[in-house]
Design goal:
Helices cover 25% and strands 23% of the residues. It has 638 residues and is of the alpha/beta class. The protein contains 13 helices and 30 strands.
């Protein structure tokens, strides 16, 4: 009687969860779906609404088809409890599909997968970690990120560093080396490219098969939890790329799971993602919403991830984003209404539980209000990658300096829209592959001028409004493009120019953190005053970055061509003395200037709509920064 009562109570709870799952409101569905510990061993539960039958097969039953799973009423969900499975054994679901054909499928909710080339799911339950990152989590809740420094180091886990035999570093080894490196360099966060199970390394993790499983090529759940904990204890956040728009179409995965369109759209035209060779999630389907929102919360809650960079948002917003034919919506436009609703629901539910996490959109169009709250008609993200700024800036810097004056709008246009969204300025992995060249090798000229250009563009990114992201390898000026199956060229640090550039990056990151003017007003016009943005002939740009305290401001002087300019008059707001605090041509930063301009005094000449001015030198191809040293007439802080 006790066993029957236990089964009855367990299945009653499962029935209730299944109802919410089908309604699209079960946001912890990984706790009831998939494989989990039970009183009698393990319970296996799977959604396959049009399957004729589902069998549990695995190491524990010699891969026979004797273990028939029973349906939970008309929920479309099948379940079974089994005493025999043991942790670490492999399993799949043998599905008699809608048309009677049979297919062996992974568990979409599995927490672990067989090491490739195997593709089975692995019997695992959630780890019961006792977290020791309470101080970090408390500070995350207490400190608002918008007015804090955010400087992200983007990492591909298996190619950051390799051993001499070509094998990549384990998570434990990364914990020992990557975290101290990031801390020493002064970044605030690590962002990993996708970590979930994926069959093809060349997809970099963006074509996933198992959304709830850390890829077997990386390691275990416990190891990654420990990594995040160690990062938090070192005062470093951890972010992860997440891909809710599409999934791998390998037959053993989620593709046409029960023989019919299940996770994907029923309309073949909408289901097929021709650009990436994947399948698009049906974002309007309630069960898919339960699955995906549960997945986002899974990584945030079970791994203490500090945020998700949501990949390919444009693919979810537009019906015509892919290559090939498309059909307009019922209003005759190209907007994917289900995609918009899903993203709004996703951000609403994530922020209801975790208002302190980062939800970043990788969105490459001019869609409005990406970072506006949902109740104001926005998508509800709190950050968006500024792809327009990135494309324009890199196009400009790859250009021969002789022609930059004719394309100066590539630099100045961003100031027209920089406060329309909460932006991150990314120099990401996408910009250093497929023949685009490394960041260093994009720069024009000989090797010295390439590094001078790299110092200039990196400093320009740091002083421009918006948070920051840099892909691994750029910090020391790697020459070759990034290769997903090779480690970074750490050996190049034996070259003095690479070593000096690594030190430059460290100093630049520290400079950013030290100056509140560079991050307190990143998303408000109060943080920026343009002095001169029209001097295309000389290809120079001058502006002021401002913090909340009126005394916290920096005069930013950008010279985008390799021509030194003497006796340049710059308008400043207050009378007194200004000190040169940054100059990309200082010898200490990798340049040739052995002396600083030091402190300069104002003159009584108005300039650039400012009441006073200073005379300075602009080094060739440089960014120079002055800050007030002793000035008068500054209003007191409010």
């Amino acid at each position: 009687m006790g066993d029957r009562q236990h089964v009855s109570e367990a299945e009653a709870a499962l029935m209730e969860a299944s109802y919410l799952f089908n309604e699209g409101t079960q946001y912890d569905s990984y706790l009831t779906m998939g494989c989990s510990k039970s009183m009698e061993g393990y319970r296996f539960t799977v959604w396959a609404p049009n399957a004729q039958a589902v069998y549990l097969v695995g190491d524990f039953n010699h891969w026979s088809e004797l273990d028939l799973m029973h349906p939970l009423g008309d929920t479309g969900i099948f379940t079974i409890e089994d005493k025999r499975p043991e942790e670490g054994q492999h399993y799949k679901y043998k599905i008699v599909q809608a048309d009677g054909t049979e297919a062996y499928k992974i568990d979409p909710y599995a927490y672990a997968f067989e090491v490739r080339p195997g593709d089975a799911s692995v019997v695992r339950d959630l780890p019961n970690k006792q977290w020791k990152d309470g101080l970090w989590m408390a500070n995350r809740r207490r400190l608002e990120i918008y007015s804090r420094p955010l400087n992200i180091y983007e990492v591909h886990m298996s190619s950051w560093k390799h051993h001499e035999d070509g094998s990549w570093y384990t998570i434990r080894e990364l914990q020992e080396e990557l975290i101290p490196f990031v801390k020493k360099m002064g970044y605030t966060h690590i962002e990993f490219m996708p970590l979930v199970e994926h069959p093809l390394d060349a997809s970099w993790g963006y074509q996933a098969t198992g959304f709830f499983g850390l890829s077997s090529k990386f390691g275990t759940m416990e190891e990654f939890q420990d990594f995040v904990e160690a990062a938090h204890q070192a005062n470093i956040g951890v972010l992860m790329d997440w891909v809710p728009g599409h999934f791998n179409r390998n037959i053993y995965g989620m593709a046409y799971y029960d023989g019919t369109p299940q996770f994907e759209y029923a309309d073949q035209q909408r289901a097929d993602n021709n650009r990436w060779g994947t399948l698009n999630f049906d974002l309007g389907k309630s069960q898919v919403r339960s699955f995906l929102i549960s997945n986002a919360l899974f990584w945030i809650e079970q791994f203490h991830i500090d945020g998700l960079r949501v990949d390919a948002v444009s693919n979810m917003l537009y019906l015509d984003y892919d290559i090939g034919e498309w059909t307009p919506n019922d209003e005759g436009t190209n907007v994917n209404k289900e995609g918009v609703e899903f993203l709004q629901l996703l951000n609403t539910k994530v922020f209801e539980r975790h208002p302190d996490v980062l939800m970043m959109a990788e969105e490459s169009t001019a869609w409005e209000k990406v970072t506006q709250p949902v109740h104001e008609g926005g998508l509800g993200f709190n950050y968006k990658w500024n792809m327009g700024w990135m494309n324009d800036t890199l196009k400009f810097f790859e250009m021969d300096p002789l022609f930059r004056k004719d394309h100066f709008n590539l630099i100045t246009f961003s100031f027209m829209y920089t406060f329309n969204e909460n932006f991150v300025l990314p120099f990401s992995h996408d910009e250093v592959v497929h023949g685009k060249k490394s960041m260093m090798n994009k720069m024009h000229g000989d090797r010295y001028n390439q590094f001078a250009g790299l110092r200039t563009v990196e400093t320009y990114r740091m002083v421009h409004p918006g948070k920051k992201l840099q892909f691994m390898g750029a910090e020391f000026g790697q020459y070759l493009e990034w290769k997903f199956d090779h480690g970074l060229e750490w050996g190049s640090l034996s070259d003095d120019m690479n070593a000096r550039h690594l030190d430059f990056t460290k100093q630049l990151n520290a400079f950013y953190k030290e100056h509140r003017a560079l991050w307190e007003h990143d998303h408000s016009p109060e943080g920026l005053e343009l002095l001169s943005a029209e001097n295309a002939d000389e290809t120079v740009l001058y502006f002021i970055r401002k913090g909340k305290n009126p005394r916290d401001f920096l005069i930013i002087l950008c010279n985008f061509v390799p021509v030194e300019r003497q006796q340049v008059t710059i308008g400043v707001p207050f009378k007194g003395q200004y000190e040169e605090v940054w100059n990309t041509e200082w010898d200490a930063l990798g340049g040739t200037w052995t002396e600083s301009q030091g402190t300069v005094k104002t003159i009584e000449t108005p300039c650039h709509n400012q009441p006073y001015s200073i005379d300075v030198i602009l080094p060739a191809l440089s960014v120079t920064v002055f800050k007030p040293k002793r000035v008068y007439g500054v209003p007191k802080s409010k």
